Netrin G2 (Oreochromis niloticus), 511 residues
Amino acid sequence: MSISHVLALLALLLPWGRCQFDVCRSLHGSKAGPEFYACQPPPTNMKEVMQIRVDPPGITCGNPPERFCTLENPYLCSDECDASSPDLSHPPQLMGDRERGGLITYWQTITWSRFPEPLLANITLTWNKSLEVVDDIVVTFEYGRPTSMVLEKSIDKGVTWQPYQYYADDCLEAFGMSPKRVTDLAPSNITRVICTEQYSRWVGAKEEKSVVFEVRARFGVFAGPKLINMDALYTRMETTKGLRDFFTFTNLRLRLLRPALGGTYVQRDNLLKYFYAISNIDVFARCKCNLHASQCALRDATLQCECDHNTAGQDCQSCSREFTSRTWRPGSYLPLPKGTANACCWGTDCECNGHSNRCSYIDFINVVTCVSCKHNTRGQNCQYCRLGYYQNASLPLTDENVCVECECHADGSVSPRCSDSGLCQCKDGATGRRCDSCLPGYTWRGGGVANVCDGERLVCRNGGTCVDFLRCVCPENFTGKHSSGGEQNCLNPPLPPPRPLHPVLSTLSSE
Ligand SMILES: [Ca+2]
């Protein structure tokens, strides 16, 4: 049976495996594009992909080889742990292996030969990926369950840790906590961290091997003991603060504090019967993808959501680069049964008429606007033409060639801008769509220049000769200015200077 078959089977067996939230989008989109749905990957047994680390160094038995006894028969000490022998070694990976043919394989520690120094062992289970636990976490101890231990979780890939559940045969003595069971909890305090005595009391090593972190029982508080009313649970997950987070972790750690004692005090004359041995750890969980992915895969040995809804990141916790249109939001289980994708990063908001696939969100005016409009377009939706271009009305707005260059003549036009129909605004004397030709009575000379004289009307005065319409060559004693005024050509020569005024008049005028 392949892994995918195993996973499919698990999905059927587990309560969260119903066919709900299993697709991210409709297969056949309408004109407006596909419909998006809240979606999440199926649960799997995460022991298949966990990394196991055991501390302190040297805690695993067999180096040097060591004999050990059992609690059930402390006088039969024929068993041996030897790290150099494949048959007698008990390395950490045997906590997560797939056992075949009924053969139980287990990790085992050194014995408590250093009593009264405590026998401490930490087992760190690493995924470095946000996971949401969907079924009981079950740790199977061979040769007796610890007298006290703590299950811890990290939600930041092992940077910080917090207790998940305390386990002791005497909670008050071990942790100063009153013993509780999950069934004692109410909906209002279901996320409380408790100490339970249910999995630590001595009942015989073979009779009871499991230490459980109860997930089903906690779900059952909302969904009923048989987990039939999952809708109630999904609703609670969405509306009760901290509930989803309680079931979320990236790594787990078991802190084993005191081994099984066989129901009595520590017997110093036979310390070889005290040790820890774990044969299996089951962690049924799904990748947390913020309801934006229906698959999760190993990439470069790390779990990674296969994000939909134009989201990206290991947990689909942001918009993908081309779709940075809006503040990212997680999907929602509500309203049931399909939930809401909250696909904040998708198309309709970032509608750029095919001239861009990037938007940015301007928070304070609550506007999504296209960025980097191509094909000489501009505007919030790339719906206008850039300065110097006009829209070809016969083409659709989405056509690459919809914006046509105005080509307004630099000398003949008032500005590079043209009208909607492509007409440039011309300076005096210039004409044509591009203002690159002259009106009658003007000559093109770096733009339309008004003619000073005219070949037909011969407007050079006093017998001047018209040259290039712009200048009069005047007869002797006439002056000509060659500017564009049109009137100053071939004036009479200047008059001699006036004679001085009569002295008397001059005196009068000065009084
Ligand atoms: Ca095993």
In short: The pocket of calcium ion is lined by residues 94, 97, 99, 105-106, 279-280 (CB under 6 Å). The chain is about 10% helix and 25% strand. The two ends are 128 Å apart (CA to CA).
